[in-house]
Structures are given as structure tokens and as C-alpha cells.
Design brief:
With 223 residues, the protein is mainly beta. It has one domain: Alpha-Beta Plaits (2-Layer Sandwich), CATH 3.30.70. Helix content is 14%, strand content 38%. Strands 1, 2, 3, 4, 5, 6, 7, 8, 9 and 10 form a ten-stranded mixed sheet that branches. It starts with a strand and ends with a strand.
Amino acid sequence: MGYGIRLLVWGSYACFARPDYKDQRVSYDVMTPSAARGVLESIHWKPAIRWIVDRIDVINEIRLERVSRIEMDQAVAVSGIREPMSAKRPLLSPVLTEEQSDQESLLLRDVKYVIHAHFDMTERAGEQDHPEKHYNIFLRRARKRQCFYHPYLGSREFPAFYTLLEDQDVAPVSYYKEQPDRDLGWMLWDLDFKQNMKPLYFRGAMKKGMIAVPDLHQKNLKS
């Protein structure tokens, strides 16, 4: 196991979309390991390292909210946006057209998680790549809230905010600390990029607000 980190992540909305709902966006009850990995990679990633999520702590109460919105079935022409901005024609109308559809989504509201993770060195690591080097780079960037792209919670329209939990920092207490264990069902673990992005699943369970995440090669993965 490589150097471990703890990252506190939160946001107003999140959607960790379930693949079994194709027509509507329905979120899992909690953050998926692949979404957690995406947050870590937004802060620091190189081909020499592979982030592995060990555990996800659910801090806030799980709240699902239905949201209806208009979505485009095809891309909007740039001119259709520029003309209203330049006052050449009225603002965009909210009336549905053939290219638009009224979609309903089931989103998570007011989420907060603690991501426990570490990284391993890959076969692409060079002579200059050392675990301590990449660990210190991540710490420096996380402390300054630097990132390659703004992290998000399942979808880019739901930005994530984060802060590094140092060794001396006490993590917030989970709402489910004294609650019964909760079966989360089969959840998306991640995509296997070596097998044409094959989705891998695991049986999620939350115990005292903590979700233990298996590694890719463990036997309880379901593909």
C-alpha cells in the first residue's frame, strides 16, 4: 500500500448516475469509488500512479430530490446563444421544441464525504518517479486547492469543494454513526480500461457511515 490520504469533499448537489436507468438520471444513494477517484485525479494524476479508493465515509444524511429540467436532444448552434447575448433577438424561450425534452432527475442534495485513498506506482513509472515525490505533490496541491480541472460530484454541473484532512485533523462525525447497517445493493466500482472500459460492480454496504471499497482484483466484484 502506498501513502494514504484523507480528503473531505462536499457540494450542494450530486448525481452518481445508475447505469440501469437509461432514460432518466437516477443517482446512487452515495458516492461511487470511480467518482471519488475522479476527484483525486483532478488534484494530482500522472501515468506513474494509480489512485485506489479504500473507504468512503458518508457524513451528511442521504437526501434525494427530484428535479425536472429541459434538456437538449442535440447541440445548440453557437449563433443561437450569441444573438440573445448581443440583443439581436429576444432571450431564449423556455417553451419546449422538438429538439428539447422535459427530463426528470433524482439527485442527491447537500452531500459530504471523506475519501480515504492511497496510490500505487504503475509500470509506467520512471526513474524520477518515487512514492514520496507524488505524495508530497498531492499534499501541496490539495492544501492550496489547486487542480487540473474543477472536481465534480458525478456530473460536471455539480461542482465539488474539498479540503485536505491532515493527520492531526479530526474528521466530521457521520450522521449514520449510530444507525443500523445499510445494504446499498450492487454499485458501480469503476471501469476496467484494459477490457474496453468494461464496468465492474461490487456489493455496497454502509456500516456506521463507512463504506469499505474492495480493490479491483477481489473476488466479490460482479462484472
